[in-house]
Every structure is written in C-alpha cells, then in structure tokens.
Amino acid sequence: AVPFNHRAVEEKWRKHWEEHPVNVNDGKKPKYYCLDMFPYPSGNGLHVGHWRGYVISDVWSRYKLMQGHYIIHPMGWDAFGLPAENYAIKMGVHPAKSTAENVANIKRQINDIAALYDWNMEVNTTDPKFYKWTQWIFVQMFKKGLAYEKEFPINWCPSCKTGLANEEVVNGCCERCGTAVTKKNLRQWMLKITAYADRLLNDLDKLDWPEKVKKMQTDWIGKSYGAEVDFKVDGSDEKITVYTTRPDTLHGATFMVLAPEHALAAKLATEETRAAVEDYIFKSSMRSNVDRVQDKEKTGVFTGSYAINPINGAKVPIWLSDYVLADYGTGAIMCVPAHDDRDFEFAKKFNIPIIQVIAKDGKEIENMTEAYTEASGTMINSGEWNGMESAVLKKEAPLIIEKMGVGKKTVNYKLRDWVFSRQRYWGEPIPIIHCPKCGNVPVPEDQLPLELPEVESYQPTGTGESPLAAIDEWVNTTCPCCGAPAKRETNTMPQWAGSSWYFLRYVDNHNDEELVSKEKADKYLPVDMYIGGVEHAVLHLLYSRFYTKFLHDIGVIDFDEPFTKLFNQGMITGKNGIKMSKSKGNVVSPDDLIRDYGCDALRMYEMFVGPPELDAEWDDRGIDGVSRFLKRFWNLVLDNKDKGAKETPESVKIRHKMVYDITTRLNSFSLNTVISGFMEYNNKLIDLAKRQDGLDKETLETAVTLIAPFAPHIAEELWEQLGHSETVFAHGWPDADEEAMKDDEIEIAVQVNGKTRGTVTISSSAAKEEAIAAGKEVVADWLKGTIVKEIYVPGRIINIVVKP
Ligand code: ANZ
Ligand code: ZN
C-alpha cells in the first residue's frame, strides 16, 4: 500500500469537509446538543491540556452523529472579565483589541482539532449584540425583585481591586489571582439566588451528573434543619437569638459566643471589659478571612454580660470570638462544649464549665478529653429530657422550644445571595439609572444594549469605584421615568454573567428581537451533554442552573435545567503531575505535534493518555505508539481491501466482538480503553488476515467506521479507498449481534518437538499469542531448554520446538 502520509490525508479531507459538511440539519433527524465550556481567550493560546476536553466532546459528537443525530456543537468566547482585562493591562493594550487578537489565534488552534464546530453559531460575551441580552436578563431580574442593592462588607481582592462573590473565594483566596481576600464595606448589586435554594438542591436529582459535583453543590447550598433559640440578656431587655442544629443539647449550653460583627457585641461590654471588647472587635475587622478560618488557636474575649439559658434558667457568660461567622445563622451561637469540638477547645482554653448531656451507655465520661460529637445516646443532666434518645429529641426539641415560646423550628442555608457587581472596566455595564426622585430605574429595554464606553484608563481604581465612574459624560444622564438629571450605575457585571446563559444563545445567535426564539429553544435546547473541567462546580454550574430556572419562570424557555448530562475531564499535567503553565516552562503546544504526527494521532493520544475523568501526565513519546498503530491500521485496510476474501466464522465473530467492546467502552466514557481496544483488535485482524489470506470487506469497513470519531481524517480516506462516495459519518454506527459473538471452544493438541504432550481448550478465534500461551501452560514440564520456534496451525495444532 501507499505509505500513510498524514499531512496529505488531513489536508485533503479538511478541505473536503469545508465544502461538504458532514453534520447537516435535514429537519428530520433528532438533535443532539454537545457543548464544551467555552474558553477565556487568554494570550497564551492552547496547550495539549485544553485539547483534551475538546477532543472528548468531538468524539462524542461524531459518535452521536453516526447514531443518526443532527449535532449542535458550537463554540464561543467568554471574553469579559478579569483574565482578559488583567492580560490587557499587563500588555498595555486595550482589552477589546487584545481580546480580538486572542480570539483569532485560539480559533485557528481550535480548528486544528478538526472538531465539528459550527462557527455560524459562534457567540462572544463582549459583543454588544450578545450582552444586550445579558443586560436584558438583569433588567428582568430587577423587575422581579431578584436584583437589589445592598451595602455590606463583601469579599475584596486587594490585588484585583474588586469585590468578589463567595463562590470566587477559594480557601480564603481570590479564585483568579490567589491573593488573600479581605473585607470591604461597599454598596453592591446582589442577585437573590437564595430564592432558588430549594429548587437548586432538589432538582439535582434530575441530573445525570458526576456524584462529586452534585455533592459539592449540595454542600454549597448547605441546607440544615434546626432551631432558633432566644436567650435573654441578664439584667436587660435585649435578647440574643442563636441558630443551632442541636437543640437537643440545650441543657449543656454553658456559654454563648457572638461574632465580633454582631450588632450587640459592643453593647454587651461593661465598664471593666469595654477596652478589651473594643480592641477585639477592631482587631477582628482587620484580619483577613483566611486567618480567621485557618486559626489553630481559638481567640476570644468575655463581654462581661450574661444570658439566661431558657431551658433551665442558668446564667451563662457571653463571649465574642471570630470563629463564629457573622453572616451564617444569626451570627450568634449557644455553646455546648461537651458535644462540639470548637466549643470544647474554647471552653478548655478559657476555663468554662463543660456539662455532658448525652451519654453513650447512660454513663457520664469522667474528665472529658474531647467532645462527644455523635448524635446518638441517652440524655443526662437534662431535667425532663433525661432518658430520652438524643436522636429522637433532636427532631422533637424544635417543637418543644416553639411551644415554650422561646424559639422556633428553622431551616438554614449556607448559600448566600450573589454579589454581582464588579469595580472593573471590562464587563457588561449594569443597566440601571439612579434617579434622585424615582430611585433605581432600569434602562428601558429598547435602549439596550447599554454599550461599554471607551475610557482613557481602564486600570482598576482601588477606591471601590469602577473606572466608568470617571467618565462624566457617561455617568450623567436623565431619568427614563421623570426626565430629571440622574446618574448611571458605574459597576459592571462579573465574568459569570455571560457564561450563565450563553448556551441558550448559540442556537439563535442572530436574533435581535428575542434572547432565543421559542421555536428554536423547543427544537434545539437544552444541552444534552456538557463537557468541561470540575473547577466550576459551584461557580458557573450553579449560576447557570439559577439563570435557567429564572428564564424558565419568566417564560423564555420551557425547561428548567440547562445541562442534562455532565462530564468533567481531568487535567493534563506536565512531568510529575505539575500543572502546565508558561511560568513553569512545561507547556506542550499542539502545533508541533500536529505537524510531526498529524491531528488524528494527537486526538488519539489525548484519549489514550489515561482515563478521561482523571488527571494524566503528558508524555510526548506516547504519541509515537499511537502513530505506529495508525500506520499499521492503514496498511491492514489497504493491503486487504482488494483481495476479495469472503467472511469466515472467525472474522464475523471478531467483527461483532469488536463492535461490542468499542461501543460499550465508548458508552461508559472509557475512551482510553477504546483506543487500547483498537490496538488489540488491529492485531487480531492482522493475524486473521495473514491466516486466511485476507479479510472480508465488511470487517474492514466496520473497523474503519468504529475508528472514525477518533481519527476522522484517516477513516474518511480509507472509507473512500474502500469504494464509498459518501462520507463515513453518514454511515450508521454498527450494531453488535451478541449471538454472533459467541465463542466456540475447540480442543487441540499441544506438541513439543513434534510429540503430543497434552491438549488445550481455546477459542476458535484465538490469536497466535493467545493460543501459544495457553498451550505452553499445559506442556510446561517439557519446555526445559531454549524455545527456538513456536508454531500455531489455527484450529488444529500447537507445536513448540525446544533445544536442550
Ligand atoms: C449548638 C451545638 C451543639 C451545635 C453541638 C453543634 C453541636 P451547620 O450544620 O453548618 O448548619 N453555628 C451556628 N451559627 C454559626 C456561625 N454563625 N458561625 C459558626 N458556627 C455556627 O452547623 C450549625 C451549627 O454550627 C450550630 O449548631 C452552631 O453550633 C454552629 F453539640 O449549636 B450548634
Ligand atoms: Zn484577585
């Protein structure tokens, strides 16, 4: 056969596909929407790690295409936000310019993957035609009371000089730049995602998503059941309400702790404690969240005041400590040192009494050295509750407390409303006008998009105002309601705004009248398969669900979950598992590999490198093996296609087994074992072809069909050489007939130096290596010496020649 020349083959088919697209919408085929998380167009371009997700989604798309679907497989650009802006500032060019350049470069690189992307559907979040709708959604939320203003201490990144959402703070640091996050009191635009907490939680059940991601969202929403209990402040009319998930332990509450930010914190100080209390409150406000969360050693101060435990009238001291968070529950807790680790540590340090109220076998522990935190056991030291099972009481206590009139049953969520404004330039302007008479007025819908104006200086100011605040002619406007002089909102939206709904826009990206037409939404949405990294589990993937539910509620779409199925690919790392990055100098660019080995080989190696859901170490040498395999496959098909061999029981069996194995592995997303499967079957087929003097055409064709989603160019070329004029992708995905796969076993003689020494039962389609290995086991005792020859006459005899 003509040797495989990847460059010629790939060029030929790339051109051909441009003129004759393989994915056509005939209006009859069912749609299948396979989506990649769209990239930030950063200046660094793509490395082989980025390719992984794109190849996975393309393999999946082509597989679905061959199963008879019309594939919606779009691509676009998440181009607003800090990464693009930080890059622009570093390089000293306007973000719009650098973004456009980066998009062009990455688009070229993405095209090298030979993915089925339909560029007619392209979207870019920074295009006014796109962000018109990002702003429109905000206006709808505003009208429904889901977007509101609030001044409060938010997370602030001193390096990015902007406020951040809770979801953007990872282990106390800025999700973008890693700087420790501090607090800053700022007026904010908030989105009321908490109004959707229960639906966001319950509807996780509907989704075919990795359990890990569902759990992360469940924990992030953090629904817990408990009670609010009121403690009267001794000698005053004030009361402190605490939130507890363990009201059963009420008799063991020997002190209380308030967050230093609690409204009563300073008021509770007495003459003697005032200085210390104010000092503690001040010091806490200066500390970053990281320090507060990561503190090993508990700190705190006694206020000098006492509260009355409503269950038994005991007088308990009130402390301040920053291990209690101001914005969770009520910002105040009742402390039960015998049954809570943090309270135990605190009580030990400050010599506060510890009263055990739950006992394992009814026995009290002498000298507790740690808290007993299990919610099982019998109540002790608990008055009327003594002898009850704590697990039962845990459920009943809220109602008892309610009846006593000292509290109520409550549900709590960790989820907070979404801090939605950024003090940065490169984002969608928030379409609100502040009128001294009418208050906040949304920009009228027919005036959207509200375009981002040009500025001289787009650097963040650090003052808590966005650079837009400096442009007087933009800021000053008139109120759309009353015509009075008014000011524009100058904050911009976070980068998540566009990505929360972009997947809806692809299918109707030129529509100037609607975000997406009903007709197209019904026909093409929602996304059937979403592929991307797991790092967005509680960011983008939560926000998108919220937006989708909102758009469902206002009648834009009929479904209320955006992504039916989700697959998270692992990262490709450099040697020793180190993340690929320019600064580490370990970035592998696909460009050279494509030149030397071709796109097909690179695609296959991306899949072969390891289980797609796990991280995998890149090794350039690995691609050699895949490349050799492709050459062998090429030769197998071309050498045998014209021999006119008829199908045999063996070839039929191998063919069906091959279809079965590849398809089951593909269905379970075990893409690396699909590739190793191709290698195994290629060897079997080469073997069989030699034995039978050729392979029937149907078996060769089946192999080419199966490999097509992975190595589309070589498959298309071989398909043509096999005599087809239509694309291989129009050919249906083959079916495996399980009956035809069944192995018949045969018994054959095993000889050593021509003498029969035993018999072995093997599959009639066993390859030479398999047969010889099985045979050797049976005659192991006669194999002393050096084996000089191994003969397998298929289906008949095994003979091993040994020299003493
Ligand atoms: C008494 C108690 C006894 C508690 C016990 C626990 C164990 P989740 O499940 O996370 O909702 N808590 C309440 N508000 C807090 C705040 N703002 N900062 C820090 N801790 C706070 O946890 C609720 C429990 O965390 C509550 O139940 C409270 O301590 C504490 F044996 O109350 B518990
Ligand atoms: Zn930052």
UniProtKB/TrEMBL annotation:
A GO MF label: leucine-tRNA ligase activity
Motif ('KMSKS' region): 579-583
Leucyl-tRNA synthetase editing domain: residues covered: 219-394
InterPro entries in the record: aa-tRNA-synth_Ia, Leu-tRNA-ligase, Leu_tRNA-synth_edit, M/V/L/I-tRNA-synth_anticd-bd, Methionyl/Leucyl_tRNA_Synth, Rossmann-like_a/b/a_fold, tRNAsynth_Ia_anticodon-bd, Val/Leu/Ile-tRNA-synth_edit
SUPFAM superfamilies associated with the record: Anticodon-binding domain of a subclass of class I aminoacyl-tRNA synthetases (SSF47323), Nucleotidylyl transferase (SSF52374), ValRS/IleRS/LeuRS editing domain (SSF50677)
Aminoacyl-tRNA synthetase class Ia domain segment(s): 415-606
All residue ranges annotated as the Methionyl/Leucyl tRNA synthetase domain in the record: 38-180
Name of a matching Pfam family: Anticodon_1
Protein family according to the UniProt entry: Belongs to the class-I aminoacyl-tRNA synthetase family.
Protein name, per record: Leucine--tRNA ligase
Gene encoding the protein: leuS
